[in-house]
Backbone:
């Protein structure tokens, strides 16, 4: 059963300016007034309420809008622990994917650009779940420009790939 806004507000306080949740009541060994949440392996802050783990960025929506968010909540600046209200937005799966950090496997320094076995820079993107080649270029700059143009035409978030 999902947590209700009324119950949430009776046990946790939330500061939209800082993104910090605090306990309003003592829980087990945690005194009231303590900062709520712990970092989990996914990089998000979570809290245990009645033996169920909740992501704090999703609870911010319950707290502020009195409803549960849709499928995805996007951290606009890419920082998974920054739960300030100004940094959170509802997102579709596609919108969420279009505001991702650059992959740690990326060696070119530009999302969607790689060195091709043909001795050229290859620019690529994803459309409808399929990878498409945007072109091959002599310079990394030209490949990056093609990728940026592709991102702009599809409404990628300005922070994508940072």
Residues:
């Amino acid at each position: 059963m999902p947590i209700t806004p009324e119950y949430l507000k009776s046990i946790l306080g939330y500061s939209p300016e800082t993104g910090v949740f605090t306990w309003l009541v003592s829980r087990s060994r945690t005194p009231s007034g303590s900062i709520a949440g712990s970092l989990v392996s996914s990089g998000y802050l979570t809290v245990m309420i009645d033996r169920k783990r909740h992501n704090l960025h999703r609870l911010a929506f319950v707290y502020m809008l009195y409803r549960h968010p849709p499928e995805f909540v996007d951290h606009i600046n890419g920082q998974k622990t920054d739960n300030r209200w100004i940094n959170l937005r509802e997102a579709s799966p596609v919108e969420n994917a279009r505001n991702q950090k650059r992959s740690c496997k990326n060696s070119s320094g530009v999302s969607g650009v790689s060195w091709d076995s043909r001795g050229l820079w290859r620019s690529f993107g994803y459309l409808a779940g399929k990878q498409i080649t945007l072109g091959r270029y002599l310079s990394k700059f030209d490949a990056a420009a093609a990728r940026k143009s592709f991102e702009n035409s599809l409404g990628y978030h300005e922070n994508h790939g940072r």
